[in-house]
Amino acid sequence: MDYPMLYRKRIIPNECVLLKDDLVLSWDEERIVTKWNALKPKKNLHHGYSCYFLKAGYKVSKFYREDGSLLYYYCDIISHKYSDDNASLIVTDLLADVIIYPDGFVKVVDLDEMVPALECGGISVQDLKQALMSCSHLLSLIYDKKLSELTKYIEIFE
Q1: Burial of 47 (0-12, 13-18, 19+ CB in 10 A)
Q2: What residues contact 35, with CB distance under 8 A and at least 6 apart?
């Protein structure tokens, strides 16, 4: 099946990257599941899986080390825009992120980037509001011990 081209857009730094090497495992109106290798390998991060929850406004990724052990779950707050003109889906990272470590520790990061992004016009007030609502909803699921309801879409492909 042919899927639209998938792009990751970042606000800080301002970039839009075609995820040409991501393997799409499933795609529908609500969710996209992909398998990937790190674009810019880091000391620990080697590969992973991601599930984009398009209507909810977040992406849940499972990050792995090279040996296959779980590094952590990394959740991006996102928005998306589909373009019929070139059959592409641009997923914008709205800066706020949630990390869930294997021991259950939860860390929210990059909230401090949202104000400068708003001030320079990189993010709209509407996107900022949506990002905060999506982050709040995601955190509620995590704190209510319902992360497995999100990760089950990844785990069927592992």
Answers
A1: middle
A2: 22, 23, 25, 47, 48, 49, 157
- What are the tens digits of pLDDT across the range 9-51? 999 999 999 999 999 999 999 999 999 999 777 789 999 999 9
Residues 6+ positions from 143 with CB-CB distance below 8 Å: 106
The position carrying tokens 């042919």 is 2
* Alpha-carbon distance values, 13 to 16, 92, 118 (Å): 9, 12, 14
pLDDT digits (tens, 9 = 90+) for 74-112: 999 999 999 888 889 999 999 999 999 999 999 999 999
Tell me the torsion sign for CA atoms 54, 56, 59, 61.
negative
- Partners of residue 61 on adjacent β-strands: 50, 74
For residue 130, CA distances in Å to 32, 79, 80 come to 20, 8, 12
- Tokens linked to 153: 């879409």
Is the pTM higher than 0.85? The answer reads: yes
Return the amino acid letter for 40: K
User: In angstroms, rounded to a whole number, what is the distance separating the alpha carbons of residues 34 and 7?
Assistant: 12
